[in-house]
Automatic annotation (TrEMBL):
Key word Repeat present: no
Signal peptide: 1-26
Keywords, sorted A to Z: Signal
Source species of the chain: Cladophialophora bantiana (strain ATCC 10958 / CBS 173.52 / CDC B-1940 / NIH 8579)
One Gene Ontology biological process: DNA damage response
Protein name as catalogued: Unplaced genomic scaffold supercont1.24, whole genome shotgun sequence
Length: 287
């Protein structure tokens, strides 16, 4: 009898030390299903502009020459902006050398993407025969990190009859885009955990563990298209100013405001919540 009582008391003591009575009296673990969301709004730090140079007429050589000459003029403006080395200065000191090492060209990438040529027969009339017509076009694409030279370029293109702005796309460089997506996903998980803790706190629970997490396909806006129609309107205004003999106005740059981009992350998670109990025994540490 004495041995039996001693054994019972020893078992009770051990259980109390391990915290089993408090664990058994605690609420049972529950499963929580919640969503977490996050969004980051930033201005674009890259602009991709696509220019189209086009000419047509009855003489093939003249059409080709006009396209080639206009393309050469545009590329002559763009190529210096894409050079890795800055313009050479007559006086070079330590400060200048240091700035040269940090120089970043305004244009990140420059390419001639498409060349097309067509020919067709222009319908005649009762008094004239069919005549051949020729058309040629070149598309040039440039990615800018500096928007001031882009504004100057667009103003120059607006005064070139054969050149038009096909598209203007605001976006982010790859490193910044990856960093912001990673930050946004982390904030979405924090948002989900904050919601779970807010729900389980009144239940006397204080531990949370993620069981399953899936990413919802909520669309971000890492790219915004510029309003080319506005640029064409400014083009017409510059042409009018030129005709009215106001060249100082006609040579002004286009005022460009970078597009606003939105990075979004949304997750759906299944979480397990419980009250502190036998973590030391079961090794069930939560997040």
């Amino acid at each position: 009898m004495i041995a039996s009582s001693w054994l019972k008391q020893s078992i009770i003591t051990v259980l109390c030390v391990l915290g089993i009575p408090s664990y058994l009296s605690a609420p049972k673990p529950i499963s929580v299903h919640l969503e977490g969301q996050s969004s980051i709004t930033v201005p674009a730090n890259r602009a991709i502009v696509s220019l189209r140079i086009n000419a047509e007429g009855p003489k093939q050589d003249r059409v080709a020459d006009e396209v080639r000459k206009t393309a050469d003029d545009v590329l002559a403006t763009l190529r210096p902006l894409a050079q890795l080395q800055p313009p050479q200065l007559t006086t070079v000191n330590a400060t200048t050398a240091n700035s040269d090492m940090q120089y970043q060209p305004p244009i990140v990438d420059l390419s001639v993407t498409t060349f097309r040529s067509y020919s067709w027969q222009k319908p005649g009339s009762l008094l004239s025969r069919e005549t051949p017509q020729y058309q040629a076009s070149v598309e040039i694409e440039a990615e800018f990190r500096d928007f001031e030279p882009l504004g100057i370029l667009l103003a120059q293109v607006s005064k070139t009859p054969a050149a038009t702005v096909q598209s203007l796309k605001w976006t982010l460089d790859d490193v910044t885009k990856k960093r912001l997506f990673s930050k946004c996903r982390s904030e979405a998980m924090v948002d989900a955990l904050d919601k779970v803790r807010a729900y389980i706190r009144p239940l006397g629970m204080d531990k949370v563990r993620a069981i399953k997490v899936t990413e919802s396909h909520r669309r971000s806006r890492p790219v915004v298209w510029g309003n080319v129609d506005v640029l064409r309107l400014q083009h017409d205004e510059l042409d009018y100013n030129t005709q009215m003999e106001e060249p100082e106005i006609a040579t002004e740059r286009f005022g460009l405001e970078p597009g606003t981009l939105e990075i979004v992350a949304q997750i759906e998670g299944e979480f397990c919540a419980w009250k502190t109990g036998l973590e030391a025994w079961f090794r069930r540490g939560g997040v």
